[in-house]
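Quick start: what a row looks like.
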Amino acid sequence: MAEEIIRVEHLKKYFDVRSNSLLKKEKKIVKAVDDINFTINKGQILGIVGESGCGKSTLGRCILRLMPISGGKIYFKGTDISTLNDKQLKPYREKMQMVFQNPYSSFNPTMTVRQSFFEIGKVFGIGNEETEKRCKELMENVRLPEDLINRHPNELSGGQLQRLAIARALLLKPDFIMADEAVSALDVSVQAQILNLLLDLRESLGLTMMFISHELTVVEHVCDEIVVMYLGTVVEKAPTKELFSNILHPYTQALISAKPKEHPAQETHRIMLEGEAKSAMDMGEGCKFAPRCRFCQKGLCDAKTPKLREIRPGHFVACHRVESEEK
């Protein structure tokens, strides 16, 4: 039986928003992450996809407890970490690391990369000799010359710095890495190098990862399972091969239809979404995707919220149309 690394149960993150009107101040709630469930097993790479603003990054930060949650449970290797304070979280932070989207903003520009690494070692009680040893090993793992670690971030290219960001995340020998749009700011050729590096590290170190991205070609290449998010909720979840060969949710169909051609002669059938998306502050009942869905059934889709159901083995979808077809 596979070892469970991360389990999320009914996770919620709501933001209170106060809007000023001429008559009164009105309090509304933005449901950035709303009742999300999934499990990540050891050695697995889970992809989280969806358009900008769907809650992907908020979900990632909640799982690592970088922001407080509004409800639900987060388990790391069987331990509930959702209610721990900063002091109690410290041993778990060592085992859960993050690679951010922009490597230039995630390093201190006044420090050399070496100083940044040693600062982490100091915080977590790793001696200078051990930190030095790990730095040499990591530079070899990420395939960079050892002397690059002595430079400041502004002296390095985006690809070099992102490799160093991955090395920094591995310094504490974590069990889980959260990669938030880790290649989206890089050139396509550099993206491929970083993705192949992550796959190699998964094989050599047995890493477990959650890979957040809006680029479907990327998640198809690196992920074992994919979660599709729309306005804070999961609309479809399945193993990667199953998802791309049997797309069930209308939103996922539209998302994948926008994937770039793999060959100039390849025929594509782009699905253009019409209508306006629901306001994040005024969801109400019904399917959140209903106003943009070409299959929307009035009186059903706009009135009743669909539940995430297992339609095929391991393949979950939240859609009334798919439910009715199965019946």
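That is the whole record. The chain has eleven helices and twelve strands. The first helix runs from residue 56 to 63.
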